[in-house]
Write a structure and sequence with these properties.
The protein is mainly alpha-helical and about 375 residues long.
Length: about 375
């Protein structure tokens, strides 16, 4: 009852407003002190297992209402204090020390799952606190903390991966890694986050329960992020190769599904279609440009005339549109492929300067992509098909 009261009080306080004045700070401090006193008061009066479960359950509730610091200090940190009194960051780089410190009784111990949960959620709270105080990660210390969190999440998943019953932790870990990596990719850190996204992808493939169709959409999302990282790093061939690898993995799963007794339903077909589309878009992102790269001595007429003439021709009118029609069904998929092919973190697409490298063939492709995109938006491509 006391925990319910303090959580309700903190929820109401959170809803009161974003800007916290002196009065709200005092009220918040009062809530934090009340929680602290509850733990001190009841710890000697409760069974250890029950007390520990309550610590993490309250921590999860606090995290849901974005009280990350309180969840970290008063719940997850308090739980982990039973294992170590020094800084936890000193342990999360050595796998052997990590295992011996947090899992002295092995992974079959009843408290092992709680410990894994506390370790993972501690990292999430640390990241969320950094995110709230430095959203654009302009401070080098904030950046360093994010990479420390990624390393710690990876180590926790590495230790948990062989335990099939902890597949939920692996799944949650991939979500946390993806969330942080996406944030870092937006500020130009793709080269550094690539290894973590690759790790998350391999974890999904290495956990048997996570290989089911139910998790395929998420696997495809992770694979797409890996491909986009490669493209950001100007390693487009590796991005395309990884996308083709993803298609092979999806085909293997589809064959296993066909062998199984249950017939393929419409939802399963939709999941496979969406996953395949994401990989195909990543393949198109490179495939649309590569055949058009020509030696500098190669001469070709200006494309402007041919595009003007092509307006009266039925779709597909250009090489780019033919490739779109071959690879994608429907204008929504085609338009998604166009957007992805035009996006490039190394240049501003709508900025009136030539693409890099300054090649006529690449300029032609970009013109054709815009040409096809405008046709799709106008609805004329459907009429002409």
């Amino acid at each position: 009852a006391e925990l319910r009261d303090v959580l309700g009080f903190l929820r109401r306080l959170g809803r009161a407003g974003e800007t916290k004045g002196p009065q709200q700070h005092d009220l918040h401090r009062r809530g934090a002190n009340t929680l602290f006193n509850i733990w001190i008061k009841y710890k000697p009066r409760l069974p250890e297992w029950y007390y520990n479960e309550k610590l993490l359950k309250v921590g999860d509730s606090l995290a849901q209402i974005k009280e990350y610091k309180l969840a970290l200090v008063q719940c997850y940190g308090r739980y982990l204090q039973q294992f170590v009194s020094v800084s936890l960051d000193d342990i999360t780089y050595d796998v052997h020390r990590f295992k011996s410190t947090f899992f002295p009784n092995g992974f079959r111990d009843k408290s092992a799952a709680l410990t894994f949960h506390a370790l993972q959620e501690r990292n999430v709270c640390i990241y969320q606190m950094v995110f709230s105080s430095d959203r654009n990660l302009q401070n080098q210390e904030s950046l360093k903390t994010c990479f420390n969190v990624l390393s710690s999440l990876r180590l926790t998943m590495q230790v948990a991966l062989p335990q099939e019953n902890l597949c939920w932790l692996i799944y949650n870990g991939t979500i946390h890694i993806y969330t942080i990596c996406r944030h870092l990719m937006m500020i130009g850190q793709s080269a550094k986050v690539l290894e973590y996204l690759l790790w998350a992808s391999i974890c999904m493939e290495s956990s048997i329960p996570l290989l089911s169709v139910h998790y395929l959409t998420w696997r495809a999302t992770l694979y797409t992020a890996v491909c986009q990282c490669y493209f950001d790093c100007q390693a487009s061939i590796h991005g395309e190769t990884f996308a083709r690898r993803g298609l092979i993995k999806f085909d293997e799963l589809k064959q296993l599904e066909n062998i199984s007794s249950s017939p393929e339903n419409s939802e399963t077909k939709k999941i496979f279609r969406e996953a395949t589309l994401k990989m195909s878009v990543m393949i198109f992102k490179r495939a649309v440009y590569e055949p058009r790269r020509k030696p500098k001595c190669y001469f070709r007429h200006k494309l402007r005339v041919s595009l003007k003439e092509a307006q009266s021709v039925p779709w597909p009118r250009t090489t780019t549109e033919r490739l779109l029609s071959e690879m994608f069904e429907g204008v929504a998929a085609q338009f998604l492929a166009i957007l992805e092919a035009l996006s490039d973190s190394s240049r501003r697409v709508l900025h009136p300067t030539p693409p890099v490298p300054d090649e006529n063939g690449i300029r032609d492709v970009i013109s054709e992509l815009f040409f096809a995109g405008l046709e799709i938006l106008s609805g004329n491509s459907i009429k002409k098909q």
